[in-house]
């Protein structure tokens, strides 16, 4: 299950532009209130978690009950590795499968 947590922080626009959150999906900056609003996505299920941005896979994790994946980027969950790899192909994402997932929540795209 993927949940979203919305964050609002008081910050000047020049400082906000130095933060990755400023450029994340759905982020907004209110110049009047000097407030940056952004969402952090959190996945906690025993699924394969695909995180990507700008046409590149950031990570593909074999999630367990003991792992949590939090990101500012797009995250999707799949029951099988085949489903995750099929989605990568369908979206045309840049991905190098040089490192095998070890079943312990570890696995990074290169």
Structure description:
- The structure is a single chain.
- This protein folds into 2 domains: 2-39, no CATH class; 42-91, no CATH class.
- The chain has 2 helices and 7 strands, in the order βαββββββα.
- It has helices spanning 13-16, 81-91; strands at residues 2-10, 28-30, 35-43, 48-53, 56-62, 69-71, 74-78.
- The strands form 2 sheets. Strands 1, 2, 3 and 6 form a 4-stranded antiparallel β-sheet that branches. A 3-stranded antiparallel β-sheet has the order 5-4-7.
- The model is unreliable at 99-110 (pLDDT under 50).
Condensed summary:
The protein is mostly beta strands and 110 residues long.
Unreliable stretches: 99-110
Strands, total number: 7
Q: Given the structure, what is the number of helices?
A: 2
Main pleated sheet? 4 strands, antiparallel
Class based on secondary structure composition and strand pairing: mainly beta
- Helical proportion? 10-25%
Mean pLDDT: 88
User: In total, how many domains does the architecture comprise?
Assistant: 2
Which strand-content bin applies to the residues? Answer: 35-45%
């Amino acid at each position: 299950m993927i949940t979203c947590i919305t964050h609002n922080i008081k910050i000047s626009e020049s400082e906000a532009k130095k933060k990755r959150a400023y450029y994340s999906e759905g982020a907004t900056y209110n110049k009047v209130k000097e407030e940056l609003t952004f969402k952090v996505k959190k996945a906690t299920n025993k699924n394969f978690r695909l995180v990507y941005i700008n046409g590149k896979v950031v990570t593909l994790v074999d999630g367990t009950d003991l792992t949590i994946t939090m990101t500012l980027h797009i995250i999707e969950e799949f029951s099988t590795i085949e489903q995750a790899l099929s989605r990568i192909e369908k979206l045309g994402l840049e991905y190098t499968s040089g490192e095998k997932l070890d079943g312990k929540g570890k696995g990074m795209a290169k």
